[in-house]
């Protein structure tokens, strides 16, 4: 679900009215038949932990267990396999920093079609290796530019110069129909009435395909799209009544970091989604850790979007059967330290302060004995003595056993004259000093 650098994005191959076209139940059923020999029919599993937390029956649609560990294979394979032979003579090309690349690579290998995949130079080696592994001898990975936008621009130039078919990640009829097979599998596997379905949104291909299918076969089912707070492109577009390009986005939830959703996808979602909600990125990190620690489920940030939104829908989902689509598990292990820190910040267990220490012997000992609680742990400390000053600042990070310990900690810090600045509430200063 990568972002596009231009205002006009990924125009569909077949000219249609982008405001009225929708995939039909028949077209998605036919697509399912085409894909079933290649794509895994992923399980719909009941999750006891999350169900107990929300007093509802929560089912997970496990696209993280797909062959390439995300649903992206469905749309990529459907698109590539539908192209006429003349469109494949010069191979295909795409740009991606993640899941779309792996879906395209797998499809090229399965269909024995030459593919050229542009990825940013900054792409982690693990992701590059996965693309090369899935594509084998049929795929060439080209590293170009520092960002996805750079790689995308190079891919378009190559496509136009070499008459190679460009495979878009989301704004395309065949891609949407491919992603829509997730909805067919949900409805086929559910032996019960589904009250609510939650879908992650990046470019909107999954949300468009699944919601279009379910709203026809189960009109009473409510459907919500979920985006990260830092990239609410579908929510803003629906509020504005037209597809809107965001000026800036946060790229932390990389699988959903999209400045502009697909035009086809917007046209579908504005009539099929009951609402779109956004969740804080740090809350998503907390969900990732809970899934790992409680259920041994590994997900990427975009894969945790729907579960992170359940709290915001508590009154609506209580007592109902709810399906959360877990979109992918391609998480880079090098990100886990950041994910853990952000989760603890969200849960109120990690706090950073600028602390003013009197420049005299015993000041630190006083801070440790009179200010810190018995379960408080120092996890970060930066201090250097300043000459000719009565006090010196230190950046101190404290991990608490319980979020309820915070107020008492701050009171003791202020009473002892140590408190200067609480960095958690000052994002710009936090980024600079920690």
Task: Give an overview of the whole structure.
This protein is of the alpha/beta class and about 425 residues long. The protein has three domains: about 25-70 and about 175-340, Rossmann fold (3-Layer(aba) Sandwich), CATH 3.40.50.1100; about 75-165, Rossmann fold (3-Layer(aba) Sandwich); about 350-434, Alpha-Beta Plaits. Helices cover about 40% and strands about 20% of the residues. α1 crosses α7 (about 175-190).
Labels describing this entry:
alpha/beta; Rossmann fold; Alpha-Beta Plaits; 3 domains; 17 helices; 41% helix; disordered N terminus
Task: Spell out the blueprint of helices and strands.
Layout: H1 25-35, E1 44-46, H2 48-54, E2 57-62, H3 72-82, E3 92-95, H4 99-111, E4 115-119, H5 125-135, E5 139-143, H6 148-162, E6 165-166, H7 173-189, E7 196-200, H8 205-217, E8 222-228, H9 233-240, H10 263-272, E9 275-279, H11 281-295, H12 305-308, H13 314-317, E10 321-326, H14 336-346, E11 350-358, H15 363-371, E12 377-383, E13 391-399, H16 406-415, E14 419-422, H17 427-433
Parallel strand pairs: 2-10, 3-4, 3-6, 4-5, 7-8, 7-10, 8-9
Antiparallel strand pairs: 1-2, 11-13, 11-14, 12-13
Structure summary:
The protein has 434 residues and is of the alpha/beta class. 41% of the residues lie in helices and 18% in strands. The protein is globular and about 80 Å long.
What is the CATH topology classification name of the largest domain? Rossmann fold
Spans of at least 5 consecutive residues with low confidence: 1-14
Strand residue percentage: 15-25%
CATH class call of the largest domain: Alpha Beta
Major sheet summary line: 6 strands, mixed
Termini separation comes to 31 Å
Overall radius of gyration: 24 Å
Class per helix and strand makeup: alpha/beta
């Amino acid at each position: 679900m990568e972002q596009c650098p231009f205002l006009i994005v990924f125009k569909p191959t077949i000219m249609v009215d982008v405001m009225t076209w929708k995939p039909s139940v028949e077209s998605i059923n036919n697509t399912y038949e085409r894909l079933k020999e290649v794509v895994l029919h992923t399980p719909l599993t009941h999750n006891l932990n999350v169900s107990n937390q929300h007093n509802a029956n929560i089912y997970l649609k496990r696209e993280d267990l797909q062959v390439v560990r995300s649903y992206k294979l469905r749309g990529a394979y459907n698109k590539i396999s539908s192209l006429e032979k003349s469109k494949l003579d010069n191979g295909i090309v795409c740009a991606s920093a993640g899941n779309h690349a792996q879906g395209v690579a797998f499809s090229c290998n399965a269909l024995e079609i030459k593919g050229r995949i542009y990825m940013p130079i900054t792409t982690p080696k693990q992701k590059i290796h996965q693309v090369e592994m899935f594509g084998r001898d049929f795929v060439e990975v080209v590293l170009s530019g520092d960002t996805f936008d750079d790689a995308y621009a190079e891919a378009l130039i190559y496509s136009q110069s070499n008459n190679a078919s460009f495979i878009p990640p989301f704004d395309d009829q065949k891609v949407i129909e491919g992603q829509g097979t997730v909805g067919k599998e949900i409805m086929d596997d559910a032996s019960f009435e589904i009250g609510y379905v939650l879908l992650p949104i990046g470019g909107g291909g999954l949300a468009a395909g699944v919601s279009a299918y379910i709203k026809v076969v189960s009109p009473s089912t409510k459907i919500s799209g979920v985006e990260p707070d830092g990239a609410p492109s579908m929510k803003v577009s629906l509020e504005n009544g037209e597809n809107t390009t965001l000026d800036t986005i946060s790229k932390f939830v990389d699988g959903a970091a999209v400045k502009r959703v697909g035009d086809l996808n917007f046209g579908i979602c504005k009539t099929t989604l009951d609402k779109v909600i956004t969740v804080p990125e740090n809350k998503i990190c907390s969900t990732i850790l809970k899934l790992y620690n409680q259920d041994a489920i590994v997900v990427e940030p975009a894969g945790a979007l729907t579960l992170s939104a359940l709290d915001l829908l508590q009154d609506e989902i209580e007592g109902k059967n709810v399906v959360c689509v877990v979109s992918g598990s391609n998480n880079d292990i090098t990100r886990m330290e950041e994910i853990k820190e952000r989760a603890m910040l969200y849960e109120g267990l990690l706090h950073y302060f600028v602390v003013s220490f009197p420049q005299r012997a015993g000041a630190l000992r006083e801070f440790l004995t009179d200010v810190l609680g018995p379960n408080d742990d120092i996890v970060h400390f930066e201090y250097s003595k300043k000459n000719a000053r009565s006090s010196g600042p230190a950046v101190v990070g404290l991990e608490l056993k319980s979020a309820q310990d915070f107020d008492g900690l701050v009171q003791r810090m202020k009473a002892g004259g140590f408190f200067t600045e609480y960095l958690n509430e000052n994002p710009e200063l936090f980024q600079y000093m920690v």
